[in-house]
Amino acid sequence: MLDGQSPVTAATMIDRFERIRPLLAEQSGRLDADRRLSDEAFRALSEAGFFRLLLPAQLGGCALSPLDFMTVVEHAAAFDGTIGWLVGNGGGMSRAGGYLSLEAAQAVFVSPSAFVASSTGAIGKAVPEAGGYRITGRWPFASGAPHATTFAPLCEICDGSGRIVLAFLPRGAVNLIDNWHVSGMRGSGSWDFEADNVFLPAEFVCDLQPVPTQTGIVYRLPGVSAFVWTVATVPLGIAKGAIDALVSVSAGHRRLGVSVPVAERELVQAQIGRCLASCRAAGAYLRSAMSDLCASVDSEGADQVAARINYRLACSHAADVAVGAVLRVNDLIGARSLAESQPFERRERDVRAAAKHIAMSAEQFVIGGRHALGGDISGASF
After folding, report:
1. For residues 80, 85, 77 and 209, what is the CA-based torsion angle, rounded to 10 degrees?
2. Higher model confidence: residue 342 or residue 23?
3. Number of H helices, E strands in the chain
4. Which residue intervals define the domain Acyl-CoA dehydrogenase/oxidase N-terminal in the entry (predicted)?
5. Tens-digit pLDDT profile for residues 315-373
6. Nearest to 367 by CA among 321, 308, 287
7. Residue 238 — φ and ψ, nearest 5°?
8. Contact, 191 vs 176, CB < 8 A?
9. Burial of 72: CB neighbours in 10 Å, binned 0-12, 13-18, 19+
């Protein structure tokens, strides 16, 4: 919860999002050109609590449930893929407040505009030293880097154990590299960052699969699954936004050479019906898989491996479905979908970019099939 208010739910956050929607709509046109969220949009989202979605209530966070979190991220992504992506990343990494000691968490999240940018795209080095570690490395894809106050890369402890940790580095300890020149998710500011022999006190380092310092299922989810979960519903949100955009313009829109408005064409009606059915089914599977994963974490002796694999299958399947839905919508609307002034072209670029994230890799279909057929998955990541 925020500021001693009643417990926060998905409905609470969606209401807050709608209140700032006009400002976000005004700013969203700058995303592609600026390649980052505007200061005004970042301030509005942070003040409304969207980068504290999983932060424990004790630390002034929203402490959303896993399913409520997914609903909020999907709602934001339906408005704009980049904004959904940053809400998922920033709000998702606020779960670090349940991993770190109370004192360390308070230091990381002391500012209302605290934003933790993470990277799982590379593994740096953490050399043990009295009282902490020396951190060195370069990491890509730190979404939200322009506004981040803390950076959380993966590092390997250099003691022969092979132990992988998250290191929470203050902004002043890293060098930022503005190299985010891409086709989709242009406004996410997913820059590289690097650290060179930076000393970090031990209380700001935790295992990738940490021992929680707070109660709640959110903080006990498997480390890899938790990273995936923060952005898993973004593609479905983008697809919903594309469908909504078609609905909003279809009543009066006619494709060249066709006398019947798009909304009145039976072919279009059937295709939109299929898109709605497939996206809703994928969303239901994704939420069911998350519920099963939570239940396996809560149940001693449960087959967590099967639950984790099933969840990753659901994530990859949802991304596949979402990409297909957006492409179908843009085909139905025709040449109008090519115009940058229309609400279609960027959604196609954004959903393709989101689906390329390792969280939704097609490799998960291989792992899921191999596991179902009794194959060896000991070296697989899920």
Report:
1. -170
2. 23
3. 12, 8
4. 27-90
5. 999 999 999 999 999 988 877 778 777 888 999 999 999 999 888 888 999 999 999 99
6. 308
7. -60, -40
8. yes
9. buried
Which overall architecture, per CATH, does domain 10-108 show?
Orthogonal Bundle (1.10)
133 phi/psi in degrees, rounded to 5: -145, 155
For domain 116-207, give its CATH number from 1.10.645.10, 1.10.3720.10, 2.40.110.10, 3.40.50.2300: 2.40.110.10
Helix (H) or strand (E) holding 205: strand 205-207
Which residue matches tokens 């996206």? Answer: 279
pLDDT, the chain, mean: 92
Q: 256: which 2 tokens?
A: 């060249």
pLDDT at 4: 47
Handedness of CA 115, 289, 98, 202 (dihedral sign): negative
pLDDT in tens, 134-161: 999 999 999 999 999 999 999 999 998 9
Decide if 133 contacts 126 (C-beta within 8 A): yes
**Regarding the domain with residue range 232-372, which homologous superfamily does it belong to in the CATH classification?**
Butyryl-CoA Dehydrogenase, subunit A, domain 3 (1.20.140.10)
The DSSP bridge pattern shows strands 150-157 and 205-207 to be unpaired
Residue written as tokens 């976000």?
A: 24
Matching residue, tokens 């999907």: 74
The residues, ordered by sequence, that sit 6+ positions from 83 with a Cβ below 8 Å of its Cβ are 24, 28, 37, 41, 45, 76, 77
| Domain spans, the chain | 10-108, 116-207, 232-372
Backbone dihedral angles phi then psi of residue 139, each to the nearest 5 degrees? -130, 140
Q: What does the alpha-carbon distance between residue 214 and residue 92 come to, in Å, rounded to a whole number? A: 16
Sorting pLDDT into bands at 50, 70 and 90, what band is 1? very low
Residue 223 confidence (pLDDT): 87
Within 13 Å and on the Cβ side, how many CA atoms surround 73? 31
In this structure, the chain runs to a length of: 382
0.85 surpassed by pTM: yes
Nearest CA to 308 among 197, 213, 224?
224
